[in-house]
Structures are given as C-alpha cells and as structure tokens.
Amino acid sequence: MAAQKLVVLGGGESGVGAALLAQAKGFEVFLSDKGQLLEKYRSILREAGIPFEEEQHTEERILEADEVVKSPGIPEKVPLVKQLKAKGIPVVSEIELAARYTRAKLIGITGSNGKTTTTLLTYHLLKTAGLNVGLAGNIGDSFAKQVIDDTFDYYVLELSSFQLDDMYRTRLHTAILLNITPDHLDRYEYTFQNYVNSKFRILQNMQPQDDFIYFQESPAVADELAKRSPEVNRLPVSLEQAINPGGYLQNSRLIAHNRSLSFELDMAELPLKGPHNAINMLSAVLAAQSVGVDSDAIAEGLRTFKNASHRLEPAGTVNGVAFINDSKATNVDSVFYALASMEEPVIWIAGGLDKGNDYSQLDGLVRQKVKGLICLGKDNRKLTEYFTGIVPILYETQDVKDAVAKGLEWGQPGDMVLLSPACASFDLFRNYEDRGNQFKEAVQSIAN
C-alpha cells in the first residue's frame, strides 16, 4: 500500500517538527514555505531527507496531499487553504498531529493574556516536583518533534487561538482558560464571538473527570460558560470570592483547593506581583494539584520561578529612572495589566501595528498613572488621536533609541519608563523579541 502523503505548510519550529514526526510515522512528507527557511531548519530537513521548497507554494503538489499540517501563522482565508478545504483535504495543526502519537497526559493553556507566564509556571511547578514533563505548543521545542521518542509522562502546552482552530480530536486532561479579550480580530472577521468560539475549542473532547480551570471574572468566559455548561470538573479562579473547589485570592494570600489537596501561601513571598499574576499563579497551582503535586513542592516551585523575557522585565535604571521591557504586551488588555501593576508615575512607550485596538478600557489608568506617552511606530495616528487630551505630553518617533532617550529626558528619579506597546511589532521590528531586545540595548547604551 502506498504511503499517505502529508504536506506541511510553514517551515518554522512547529512545521519542521511536524515533518520529522510524520516521516517517523511512515508518511510521504513534503514541506512548503512561502518565505525563506532559517538555515538551521534547511539543514535539519536535508539531513532527514525530507523534500521541501521555499519562497513558493507548488499548488498541484500540495493539493495531492491526503492531509496538510498548517502553520498557525497562515490564515484560513488564504486561497490555498480554501482550495484544500474545498477538496475535502483535512488541514490540522502540529498539535493535532502530535497528540495522536503520545501516551502522555496533556495540560493545555490558553487566554488572550498571561498564557506564556502560566505555561512556564505550570511546567516549572511539575518539573521542580520531580515529574517527567515536557514543554511545547506556542513555546519551546516542537511538540511533534518531542513526540517522536515520546519519553514524557506529561506535556504542558501553550495554545494560541490559531492552534486551537486546527485541533479536532485532541483531548486535554487539564485545560486552563485565563481570559478572553479582543485580540487578533483581523483573523476572525472582526467578530469577537468568533474569537471566543476559537478559545472555547480548548474544551472539545474533554471528559467529565478532566479539570477545567478558568478565571470566572473574565466577562467573556462567564457569558460563554452560561451558554454552554460543559461536562467537566470545573475549577474557577476568583479575585473576589472564596471558592471550593477552585482558587482565590484573600488578603494577599493565594488559596487553592482541588480534589483532596489544599494550598495556601502569601503573595508577598513570591517573585510574581500584581492581580493578573495572582490569576496566573492560582491557575498553575490548580493544574499542578490536578496531577497530584503536593503543597510543599508547589510552594518551592512558586518561590523559585523566573518569568519569561519581555514580560514586565526590568531593563535597567538610569539616573533613578527605571526602564521596564513589556514588549510581549501586544494587545490592550496586556497593557491594562502592566499599568495596573505600576505603583510609580509612568512614561509609557506604545505603538506598532494596530490589530483593531479599543483603547477606552485604559482611560482611567492612563489618566491616573501616565505622565507622558511616546508613540513608537510607523503610523501613530490612532494612538495620538485617542490620547491627545488624556496624557499631558505626547511624542512620536520611529527609533527605539530616540524613544528611550526621550523617556529619560521626561523622567524624574522614581519614575518608570514602560515599553508596553499594545500593538504587534512588525512595522519596525522582526517580532516582539527583537523589539524588546533593541529596547534593552538602547537602555544599556544610555546607561554606559
């Protein structure tokens, strides 16, 4: 019998991992990327003997596939994807492919904000407790590549809405839904409900005994749950009321009850600060409890955790003015969390590629905390029009060094210069990491 043909669209970390797994499982594999591949991925594919093309999609070859694994970066509305669907060729994500071939228990984490922190923290809690755990999804090494040898008992997966859109049969044993606020609406026909539906795909295939952890004060999550009432073990997280089973914050103490396990710890002892991180920590604690991690191990894990770069990351202090790199804040909700956690007067650097932002939720915080706004982007009209009259001073630039210098010029000792863009980075930078790294370098060069 001829081998099934599997085509991978997109040759990044997830695509190359999917190609390697498919080859290992006996598929005839072809990888196609509209852009250029990184040299490291080219050499991996060549070494494995997997045919590939770059800077083009050969449609007749792709349309012969029995199945296609699509990079999360490729939208559904691309003509090639529409053709595949019209021909009835299944289009799935790398996560969907990999989940078929693992015996591990899966913990999946999604949300408009906080998912990277919560994923890294959940992984850290399981790892420090001595569990045999892998990290994958929107972060770290390809899930598919790790599943080739399938040596882990658990995987903690960060899942974007784009990955969830192409998942159909994957079953998560523990799912976390942190919040849903408008984001990526350009991919969802500018309809918020479409994006909500996408996030709720995390629940598909869950069984009544599986744990569903969610922030109950996220209005979109609460509204949607009222419509759906899924059959799962619900574990709400709250900042407003005591819940059992579930997790809550009371007098700055994290308290969580799941199955027969109870946990309590003062937030003052922990490196993560602010109410948004209380939600992230309570969610991770409940997930760790769902796989049997005890309180002592959880407390040790929380105390020793170091967050990812570009998430409210200290970037240096010059003349008493502190610089904070929050480049990963690519939507308005992330900026809300960042500003809410600032005690000091803020000089805010924002801007980039707008994804349909509504800045009105920031009004109160900006009036209260922001003494100046520096717009760092090619097209700053929306920001300047909205915040003129709300912030005392405004400045526009397309140069990150200039933005940092202006922040220092405006700043007094004790002030914070916060890079929290609310926008994608692709107008001036390769990605949010590049933006954050250039910001940190600019701060260092001024400090020196």
TrEMBL record:
Record gene name: murD
Q: What is this protein called?
A: UDP-N-acetylmuramoylalanine--D-glutamate ligase
Question: Under which EC number(s) is this enzyme classified?
Answer: 6.3.2.9
Q: What reaction gets catalysed by this protein? A: UDP-N-acetyl-alpha-D-muramoyl-L-alanine + D-glutamate + ATP = UDP-N-acetyl-alpha-D-muramoyl-L-alanyl-D-glutamate + ADP + phosphate + H(+)
For this protein, the record's InterPro entries field holds:
Mur-like_cat_sf, Mur_ligase_C, Mur_ligase_C_dom_sf, Mur_ligase_cen, MurD
Residues where ATP binds: 111-117
**Group of enzyme by EC:** ligase
Q: What does this protein do?
A: Cell wall formation. Catalyzes the addition of glutamate to the nucleotide precursor UDP-N-acetylmuramoyl-L-alanine (UMA).
Give the Mur ligase C-terminal domain ranges. 310-423
Q: What is its main location?
A: cytoplasm
**What pathway does this protein act in?**
Cell wall biogenesis; peptidoglycan biosynthesis
Q: What family is it from?
A: Belongs to the MurCDEF family.
Q: Which residues form the Mur ligase central domain?
A: 109-288
What compartments host this protein?
Answer: Cytoplasm
- Keywords, A to Z? ATP-binding, Cell cycle, Cell division, Cell shape, Cell wall biogenesis/degradation, Cytoplasm, Ligase, Nucleotide-binding, Peptidoglycan synthesis
The record's listing under SUPFAM superfamilies reads: MurCD N-terminal domain, MurD-like peptide ligases, catalytic domain, MurD-like peptide ligases, peptide-binding domain
The molecular function terms in GO held by this entry are: ligase activity
| Pfam family of the protein (one) | MurD-like_N
